[in-house]
Amino acid sequence: MTDSTKPASSLAFRSIAGVLLLSCVLAAAALPVAAQDAPAAPTAEAPAAAPSPDAVVATVGGETITEGDVAFAAEDLQQELAQMPPEERRPFLVTVLIDMKVMAKAAREQQMDQTETFRRRLQYLEERALRRAYFAETIAAGVTPEAVQQAYDAFVATFQSQEEVHARHILVATKEDADAIKAELAAGKPFEQLATEKSTDPSGSQNGGDLGFFSRGMMVKPFENAAFALTEPGQVSEPIESQFGWHIIRLEEKRQSQPPTLEEVGPQLQQQVMFKAFEDSVSALKQGLAIDIPDAALAEGVKRQSEQQAQ
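Structure (tokenized):
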């Protein structure tokens, strides 16, 4: 029934690599807290203080594993943590850190930390950590409730209200079936009952053919034209053919769409504001900086990526 070519929403936000990067950084920042898995305190009591990052969780051959280590491990292993029960996450992280300690000790004894490959990897990991720190402390910290509210106000100011229709329908295979149902409706049989008994669309058996509210562009054209042509609640259309079969439509209600509330779109707006802050900050940092990519094909690919993010 739904037109698969319709726009996803009047409030469409970009979904690109930069946004995914920001999401990953935010998730990483949130996970160390979750990794503690402390039970929620009763509402009548003050919440327990977060453990100090220097608090010792375990010792391995005289070397300590701290709460800070557990938090960093949670940041790196967020995908694995998401796939296991909460009560298993902390033991899993400590197990990984114990293994890391003993394997790192063995690697140092074999002087693996003296190789050029290790030096390059260490440099990469250092720069990745600094990128995360810069993002969290310089960019994300500037995404305030006031900035999100300002973005919402701008969205509302440009919101264009559209006519919406709330309708029910009955879908059948042939016009003969549709005509027979139309006759039963004329004889007084309830629309919802006929939808439940005879409609081949899942909405029929589930909720009496109720499609909820929809705007233009959300349904296939023949159905849309017939639904929006109805003027009075309770009015029933003639049988209408689409690629899905034959429809009989009943108008329930018409209204003008309203912008979603701040609570409904807040997370999307926050992401939008954060991406713009990220984009502006990185663009400023690149200003006047010579960036040379000798491979012409790679340079063109990087240029396309930058242009897509700027759109």
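The first helix runs from residue 17 to 35. The mean pLDDT is 86.
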